[in-house]
Amino acid sequence: ILPTTRYIELILVIDNKKVSPTYNILVFKDKNVLNDLLTFQMYISLNIRVILTALVIWKDENLIDVTGSAGEVLGRFIKWRQNVLVPQKKHDSGHLILGEGQYSGVLGMAFVGTVCSPSLGGGIDVFSSNNVASAATILAHELGHNLGMNHDDRPNCNCPTSSCIMAAHASGASNFSKCSEDDFVALIERGKGICLQNAPEPGDQYSPAACGNSILDKGEDCDCGLPKDCKDPCCNAATCTLASGSQCAYGLCCQNCKFLSAGIVCRRAGNACDLPEYCNGSSQFCKPDVFIQNGYLCDNSTSYCYEGECSSYNDLCRSFFGSTSKRAPDVCFQHANMKGDRFGNCGRVGTNFKKCSLSNSLCGKVQCVEGTVIPYDADTSTSNINGISCRNADFKLGTDVMDPSYVATGTGCAKGKVIPKKQAVTDSNISDRQWKCHNHGICNSNKNCHCDPGWAPPNCDTSGYGGSIDSGPPHQDTSVRDGLLIFFLLVVPVLCFIAFLLYCFRNKIKSAWRRRDVKHTYVKFKLNFNLSFSPPY
Fold first, then answer.
1. Does domain 6-196 have CATH number 3.40.605.10?
2. What mean pLDDT value characterizes the chain?
C-alpha cells in the first residue's frame, strides 16, 4: 500500500430508467446512502479516497442511446463525457449508472488504467435493484478497472476472504486482494495516476459535510479524521481547523505545516508528453495538471502526444511480449487485421468482428515481432508471413473489460496519419495546434504557451523564467542575484570597514613605516661599513 493518499474525483450519471417509478431515485439523492455506495471503507484500505464531485440525473430523457451491447453503450458514454462533462467539471473518472438492460448479463464495463484520461476515464455500471451493497460492489469493481486493476483469476492473489472485489464474477465482496494492490501500485509507478495526487478543494464534493470524515468539506481548513485517529500535527481534529502556527495541513505544496516556496516542483512531468507544475508560495494546492497539447511529435517523431501520453506500437508490444518485442512490419498488420477475427480486427459491430480496410490495417489490433513473454489471460497467435514471425494476442480479461491489445489513440500509423478510434486520419484532426509561442515554447492542453527557460509567458516573446500561466512560476535561477547580494551586503561592508580603520589609524601607520625605513637604513649602513673594513687574509 502506498504511503501517500490518493484522491479519486468521481462523477456519477444516473440513467433515465433509474428515475422511472419502477426504481427509487431517492436512493441516489440521499448523501448518506451515497457514502455507502461509494465504498469509502473499501478504498480506504488502499489509502485511496473516493470523492463524489457531482451527481448528474437524466430525469427527463437519456442524453445518449443506452441500447445495444455494453461495449457500444460504454463507447457512447465516454464520448459524451469527454465532450460534455470534462469541460464543465474537473474530475478523474465518470460512471454511468444504468437500469436493468439487455447487456447479456454484463453488470458493468470499464477501461483498464485510464483513470486520468479525459477520453477513456470512465465506465458503466448496471444496477438492477436498489440494493446498495450490491451496487457498491459493482461500482467498486468497475472503478478498480479504471485504477489499473485486473481480475483476480491469477495465482497468488491472496484474497483475505473467499472472494475479493476484483473477482471475475460478482460476489458482493468488500476487500481488495494483493493482486489489486499490486496493480494499483504499478499504475502509479507508470505515471498513469498523476491526477490522483491532488486533494479536492473545499466544497468540491457532493458527499455530506461532517468534521471527522477525512474529507475536506466546505468551511473546514483540514480534516484528519476522528480525534482518536488523527496523526496530523497541522490539524485540530476536534474543530477541523489549522493548529496554531500552521499555514496548511495538506496539499502537494504543504510541508511541515508551511507553504512550500514559489517555484518548487509539486507535480513532475510523468513522461515526454507531460508538463511540470510548480507551487506559487501562497497556497497548499498544486496547479491543475496540464500536458502538451495533442498532436506534438514524440517517440523520435514516430508518434504523437495524446492526452499527456506518447502512444507507440513498440511500447504496446513490450507490455505484452516483453522488453525485446517491437512493432511488426506492415504486412503483419495487413494479414491479421483485414481478416476480422479475434486476433485481428478494427473493433466490433454488434457481436461480430469488423474487418479493417487496407488504409486502416495499422489501426486495429497491434501486431508484434520477437519477445519471449507469454501474456497472462491471453491467447496468442503466431503467423509466418514472408519469413516474418508475426505475433498477436486476444485477451480474455472478462466481459466487463475492454481489450487492451488495440492500438492506442494518438499512435502514428503512417506519415501524416494518426489513430483516433481504430481508424487512420490526418494528424490535423487530432490537434488544433496554435503556433503562437515564437519558437520558444510549446502549447499545453489549455492552448497556452509553456515557455522554454529564459522566456516568459504568456507568449514566450520576452525574457523570463519559463513555464506557463497554468503551471505556476518555475524555479528561478537566483545565483546572480544572490552573488550581488553577497557582494554588496557582505564584501562591500567589510572593505568599507577596513578602509575606515586605515583612515582612522593612518598617522600611526605612517609612523610605523618611517621607523621601519630608518631601521632598514641603519642596518644597511652597518653592513656596508663592516664589509669595507674587513681585514685581509
1. no
2. 81
